[in-house]
Amino acid sequence: MDSEKNLSKPRNSFTSSIGFVLAAAGSAVGLGNIWRFPYLAAKDGGGIFLFIYLILAVTFGFAMLITEVAIGRKTQESPLTAYKKLNSKWSFLGFFSFIVPFIIYPYYCVIGGWVMKYMFTYLAFLGEVTTEEGFFTGFITSQWQPILYTVIFALCCFIIVYKGVERGIERYSKILMPILFLIVVFIAIYSLTLKHTDADGVTRTGLQGASIYFIPNFKGLTFSKLLYIIVDALGQLFYSLSISMGIMVAYGSYMKKENNLGKSVNQIEIFDTGIAILAGMMIIPAVFAFSGTDGMSAGPGLIFITLPKVFLSLGKFGTFIGLIFFVMVMFAAITSAVSILEAIVSSMIDRLHWSRKKAVLVMSSVAFVISIVVCLGYNKFYFEYNLPNGAVAQILDIFDYVSNNILMPVVGLLTCLLIGWVVKPKTIVDEITRNGEHFARKTLYIIMIKFLCPVLLFVILLASFGIFR
């Protein structure tokens, strides 16, 4: 019966172009933009990283993003089945595109639970306790608290995806994304006004931190270091634009044929890159003012350990700033997690002809079981494993490494080979221009998808195995 119902129904779609753009941008604007982009920018010479990132965003990022959206709209299929429709011999690529979000979603819910814990703590006006020694470590290594918050976070995602494309994903994206943008702008502007004098009498300002962020630092720059920066920027684009995760294929399949595909992708790029840059303005000046350059290298601990100390130093107003910051991070985490779950659910609907209700219930349940295992990876199932890139990992890190460092570059590389050399770039170009739209970057697109993108993706894959260490 589920099969018959599904086959007789027209495919769900976003009701408007802006609905698609906000949903896709919501997917792109996630935790990677909030903490990973500022951290990499600070680590990789500020303005140098920004300059390289922007160049790659309008070339590599654009080519990969518009390809996936066009594949989705052309085939009207989810990632699991779309590639087979382009070429029956490439159905295996659909499987890889499905596995990526399936691996990511469970541990993303766990991290979302961490954000929710901090948001509730600030909501209870207890933000100062988050700065106590060992608070974060104590929380993630406890047995039941992380599971509880993971349940709450996953339930929010479940409800939105359960409601469907129009009544769930699009409706909530139209609400959450404008609020997220306003909060980011507010904190970014406020961050620039900060000023702090440490125990040694050294005064640092937010504006000084902003100058480190925006002005290129060529001191000590070597070819080897430049290569590292390029690899970091390329890796960040995967996080920032949600490419090679199956998400944009799924969202593209919900895009109406009459909408201007090229214009919509440009808007997603602008929105996502703007938020990423604003995230840097929001975090780097504040952290520099209170912790100097040392505080800017905190990596993943930036939002859970370093920033709460900054909020504490601002007094009572800092608790308010901390609250709206974690509300903003929560919105970003939910919009991204929803898109990841939708990529999984849509694949089950298209491949097995399940109803949305059945697909969301089954896949959410399976993902939740895996999420519990990830949570227990910090206590009951704790172990350490040395990854090929030199990092010491446990369960969450291994999931992240396999999905982001191996599978995503592989999916991207295979997509380039399929479009560039098997079905040919004209397949995508025709979809982009189907309504008579002018494709201004057509020549650049063909060069990127056939030659440059595969090379860059191969470099990322080599870097994930520690070749350049």
Using brief descriptors, characterize the structure shown.
4 strands; disordered N terminus; two-stranded antiparallel sheet; Amino acid/polyamine transporter I; 469 residues; 74% helix; two-stranded antiparallel ribbon; transport; NSS family neurotransmitter:Na+ symporter; mainly alpha; globular; transmembrane; 2% strand; 19 helices
Set out the fold topology.
Blueprint: H1 2-8, H2 17-28, H3 31-43, H4 47-75, H5 79-86, H6 91-123, H7 135-141, H8 145-162, H9 165-192, E1 195-197, E2 203-205, H10 206-214, H11 223-241, H12 247-253, H13 261-295, H14 306-313, H15 316-352, H16 356-376, E3 385-386, E4 392-393, H17 395-422, H18 426-432, H19 442-464
Antiparallel strand pairs: 1-2, 3-4
Helix pairs in contact: 2-9, 2-12, 2-13, 2-15, 3-11, 3-13, 4-11, 4-12, 4-13, 4-19, 5-6, 6-8, 6-15, 6-16, 6-17, 8-9, 8-15, 8-16, 9-13, 9-15, 10-13, 12-15, 13-14, 14-15, 15-16, 17-19
Membrane topology: Multi-pass membrane protein
Subcellular location: Membrane
Keywords: Membrane, Transmembrane, Transmembrane helix, Transport
